[in-house]
Amino acid sequence: MTASATVPAIDWFTSGATPALLGRRCGACGTYHFPPTAAWCANPACRSDRLETVELARRGTVWSYTDARYQPPPPYQPPSGEHVPFAIAAVRLEREGLIILGQVASGYGVDDLSVGTTVEVVTEVLERVEGVDRTVWKWRPVAPLGGGGA
User: In angstroms, rounded to a whole number, what is the distance separating the alpha carbons of residues 129 and 149?
Assistant: First the structure.
């Protein structure tokens, strides 16, 4: 592989110019699941095992958010040697009826978020291993229509 090769660190999303989270959709009742690890439908009225892997909506709205200001206790070791605070958002995907928790993209924090903020899935490099960039997905606020915003 070349130095520019990228792969998801976990197989819960696609990479590329328009990354998307991957979920499962029940073929019997249409219920969506995330992460895409379900073996049967979680809908108590269904319980089918006919699940297909699907791309979820790339955009959603912030349902809730917080920040991670404090370094977790040992044995946790931050990759850079120093804990860097980051924001976390619970995002509602309207079509799927899911709320998905995830880290907010680098350069954005709680001051860039409010309940109802539109965010989209992006990828960032987690680490480079043997010339391959292993990526993770994050939520990035979308600039409001008409300009402005981050």
Answer: 34
Within a domain: 48: no
pLDDT of res. 145: 46
Instruction: Give pTM, 2 decimals.
Output: 0.83
What's the domain count of the chain?
Answer: 1
Which pLDDT score, from 0 to 100, does residue 146 have? 43
Q: Backbone phi, then psi, for 110, in 5-degree steps? A: -65, -25
Q: How far is CA 114 from CA 89, 90, 107, 129, 147, in A?
A: 10, 11, 16, 36, 18
Contacts of 12 (CB under 8 A, 6+ apart): 21, 22, 34, 35, 36, 137
Amino acid identity, position 38:
A
Query: Which residue range forms the structural domain that includes residue 116?
Result: 58-141
